[in-house]
Amino acid sequence: MNWDDTTETAADGEERLVGSAADGEDQAVEAALRPKDLREFVGQAKVREQLDLVLRAARTRGAAADHVLLSGAPGLGKTTLSMIIAAEMAAPIRITSGPAIQHAGDLAAILSSLQDGEVLFLDEIHRMSRPAEEMLYMAMEDFRVDVIVGKGPGATAIPLELPPFTLVGATTRAGLLPPPLRDRFGFTAHMEFYEPAELEQVIHRSARLLDVETDAEGATEIAGRSRGTPRIANRLLRRVRDYAQVKADGVITREIASRALAVYEVDERGLDRLDRGVLTALLKLFGGGPVGLSTLAVAVGEERETVEEVAEPFLVREGLLARTPRGRVATPAAWAHLGLTPPQPPPGAPGGAGQQGLFGA
């Protein structure tokens, strides 16, 4: 229900069912499922309360809302909130992304065409080029840009006045934003991962919109495997719906959800084939570690970047894997999850290999 757009696939091009990226089909379905105002938006209670105050105050003053920066993992609702901001302010919205703005002229063309009070949503703002970023400083603060005409000694800066607008920046890596840009946002919010109870609300709402019948236990089963991310919850709901329609009577129960997700190789903690492959290699081939990232990637037949950026963040968040100066190490929870017994340290050794040496026997 609340999601953002990136690309997340395995090295062989296979799209991950539990990936937080949105493909073309996802984007079309998500557009229909997105909440239209803050009252419909599930989760992020503190962010909703703070943002509601910002928007109400702006409407009372009859002015454009302050610039807003939203940070957090993909799929948590940054794009949805930007659309809600525009709807609450009764303003049009322009959507673009940082990678699409590689020159200052690209940004100048967008800014010069904005209407009074319009919302400009800039996704992955940390990936914008430096010249465009520096132009954005003046646009956000003074609602003005200087357009350079000509080259060399004869170049002239022509000031261009802009109507008041609201910039909504979204980023998955807030630490990459330079302080001068971050400081120009009047309101900043960090999107947290969702609790299972909140994801159950998301699933029930989406099920009603998709005209799918699901009981409480079925929603609970899907929510528990959704990795704290609404986009993943909705994706799993659609796949379980398909299974229920083909293999059962169309009603999603706990048993149907469990059987369906077993078909799609999503286990009870939300791990998929790639996640389990990384853990299995770490435990069975390397005794729980420590092992270098490149070696681990070769062992699972994936690119180094795929393991580091796609699989590891969730495994670390779940407490199944740790990044250490000596390499990747499995935790006791990883051994328990795969039903394996960790190796015993040699007699007289202080800790033994891998996770026992770091986490205790």
Automatic annotation (TrEMBL):
Ligand binding (DNA): R304, R323, R328
GO cellular component: cytoplasm; Holliday junction resolvase complex
Gly residues compositional bias, start-end: 350-361
Chain residues that bind ATP: L33, R34, G75, K78, T79, T80, E141, D142, F143, R184, Y194, R231
Record: residues binding Mg(2+): T79
Domain AAA+ ATPase, chain residue ranges per copy: 64-195
Region Disordered, annotated ranges: 1-24, 339-361
UniProt keyword annotations, A-Z: ATP-binding, Cytoplasm, DNA damage, DNA recombination, DNA repair, DNA-binding, Helicase, Hydrolase, Nucleotide-binding
Gene Ontology process terms (BP): DNA recombination; DNA repair
Main localization category: cytoplasm
UniProt cross-references to SUPFAM superfamilies, sorted A to Z: P-loop containing nucleoside triphosphate hydrolases (SSF52540), Winged helix' DNA-binding domain (SSF46785)
Catalytic reaction equation(s): ATP + H2O = ADP + phosphate + H(+)
InterPro entries: AAA+_ATPase, AAA_lid_4, DNA_helicase_Holl-junc_RuvB, P-loop_NTPase, RuvB-like_N, RuvB_wg_C, WH-like_DNA-bd_sf, WH_DNA-bd_sf
EC number: 3.6.4.-
Gene3D superfamilies: 1.10.8.60, P-loop containing nucleotide triphosphate hydrolases (3.40.50.300), Winged helix-like DNA-binding domain superfamily/Winged helix DNA-binding domain (1.10.10.10)
GO MF annotation terms: ATP binding; ATP hydrolysis activity; four-way junction DNA binding; four-way junction helicase activity
Similarity comment: family membership: Belongs to the RuvB family.
Subunit structure, interactors included: Homohexamer. Forms an RuvA(8)-RuvB(12)-Holliday junction (HJ) complex. HJ DNA is sandwiched between 2 RuvA tetramers; dsDNA enters through RuvA and exits via RuvB. An RuvB hexamer assembles on each DNA strand where it exits the tetramer. Each RuvB hexamer is contacted by two RuvA subunits (via domain III) on 2 adjacent RuvB subunits; this complex drives branch migration. In the full resolvosome a probable DNA-RuvA(4)-RuvB(12)-RuvC(2) complex forms which resolves the HJ.
Biological role: The RuvA-RuvB-RuvC complex processes Holliday junction (HJ) DNA during genetic recombination and DNA repair, while the RuvA-RuvB complex plays an important role in the rescue of blocked DNA replication forks via replication fork reversal (RFR). RuvA specifically binds to HJ cruciform DNA, conferring on it an open structure. The RuvB hexamer acts as an ATP-dependent pump, pulling dsDNA into and through the RuvAB complex. RuvB forms 2 homohexamers on either side of HJ DNA bound by 1 or 2 RuvA tetramers; 4 subunits per hexamer contact DNA at a time.
The record's note on its domains: Has 3 domains, the large (RuvB-L) and small ATPase (RuvB-S) domains and the C-terminal head (RuvB-H) domain. The head domain binds DNA, while the ATPase domains jointly bind ATP, ADP or are empty depending on the state of the subunit in the translocation cycle. During a single DNA translocation step the structure of each domain remains the same, but their relative positions change.
Protein name according to UniProt: Holliday junction branch migration complex subunit RuvB
